[in-house]
Amino acid sequence: MDKPRILIVEDEEKLSRVLELELGYEDYSTTVAADGSTALDLLTDEGWDLVLLDIMLPELSGMEVLRRVRRFDDMTPIILLTARDEVYDKVNGLDQGANDYITKPFQIEELLARIRAQLRQPRKAKAEQHEEFGVGDLVVDVDAREVRRAKQPIELTPREFDLLVYLLQNKNVVLTRDQLIEHVWGFDYFGDTNVVDVYIRYLRQKIDKPFDHPYIQTVRGVGYTIKEHD
Questions:
Q1: Domains, the chain, ranges and CATH?
Q2: Mean pLDDT over residues 133-149, rounded?
Q3: Which of 37, 58, 118, 183 could tie 77 with a disulfide, CB 3.0–4.6 Å?
């Protein structure tokens, strides 16, 4: 079996070398990029099983690399490495399509656990991308990753899209925050469950607020559901 290929995008030479050695010990194949432009070239030309992406990079920031990569690849797991501990930065990274984040300094054991969790996710996600879901005038084409309501196209981030699909897969079923975390973020997600509330708010702004009636409903003390209107 081929070794999982991990791209390390980190401009701190000491840290990138430590990551290279530790991941090598775990039988991963690694390549290091020290700036955003090099990383983008590698991500465009080669296939990777996972990317460790520092936010603060020369030439192109990690956020810009992430934004550009998600235009053509929304499947490769990307874990952000950040020295920032601001909620905005974490939410912004996830909103741009990152799968997870870890704040420096971190324990290598925690990073390895996050990597293992992400490497389990893509196979499941790909297997599920073969259907179309909808409720009322809201239609989601999973293969094309397109969303329309009342025939109007709606742009969603990868995470918003996955959350909407899971809600539609369970139409009329009340889903708890823990269930949404497990199925959309992965059962090994380490963050706070209030990230669900943040993304539900994002979805409502895009698929409910501009229209006559909302589909996403809050069940107080339990979670969220999508329901067809009578």
A1: 5-127 (3.40.50.2300), 129-226 (1.10.10.10)
A2: 88
A3: 118
